[in-house]
Amino acid sequence: AQAYENLGQMETALQYYQQALSASQTSEDRATEATILNNIGGFYQKLGQWSEAVEFYQRALAIARDSGNRATEGTARTNIGATFVAAGQWADAEAELRGAIEIWESLRTGLSDADQVAIFDKRSIAYDLWQRALVEQERVADALEVAERGRARAFVELLSLRVGERSAAEFAAPAALSFGEIQRVAAESHATLVEYAIVEDRLYIWVVSPDGNLEFRSVVLDRAIPDIAVAANRGAQLSRGMSDWVRGIRGDTSESAETVTTRLQKSYNAFIAPIADLLPDDPEANVVIIPHKELFLVPFAALQAPDGRYLVETHTLSIAPSIQVLHLANQQKAGMQPSPTAGALVVGNPTMPEIT
Prior knowledge:
single chain; alpha/beta; Serine Threonine Protein Phosphatase 5, Tetratricopeptide repeat; five-stranded mixed β-sheet; 14 helices
């Protein structure tokens, strides 16, 4: 059925879906029935028939709850939330996606590191869509909390296990940061925090200044960087386009030096220019960049402004995987004992090479 759906033969695909659904019901295979119902929901969602999509997703959800299958329940609630997002029903989407995330996070408790990351990777769309629903309701501080919750949890769990030297059975995941706590991290770090999130075809950017002020900007990616524009299947193709774009920035392709420079300039216009007025004027003031997805591979320090200067020339930059990780690092640093020795051994090259 999915093969025909991918070929655009929708009537034939639906016939096969209905046959498969009937067969699963006859054999009383409830798990397969729920999977097929989810697939049929996706079929109607692709056609833009939102109410029909939700109906089939809810039938899958009912089976999952009856059978205690939490993974299928999480899938169904994520799908319902995605449908509400597509339909512009933001409050309904928020409720479903919040429930889906609670399921995914409960499933990760006590799992191996690999399994935790796998679940996060598989269901990260729920975090992204929840942010979208909140942004559309102009609740940008709440959206920042969700962005942090999504990207920090698996990494922080792993970090806490290593630092605290506790077994997985004893470990309780730290609570996600509230916006008030995020403001305190900015103040304690004496830094402007710049957090990015790629959500569907948008780039969300939050800027938290050391005094706690929050500003938010949203950029349509394929308008900011027309080179990655696509005509169809925007989500998947934008992701591939961003990956190719970043590889070109880093010189990982056969691009000429001139082309790489052009990409650095265009990337500045896309990633920095929208928030340039929010960054500190003092080049010594700390700016912490928290990237997302493909942006982790962007050499932010080398992005080139219209005046020819690189970003590192005008700002003191550092990179963090999340604000919560920055918070834990600050806590660990504060708890470190000072060295009993007064001196330090500094090793360096006294003769620097000339750059031509």
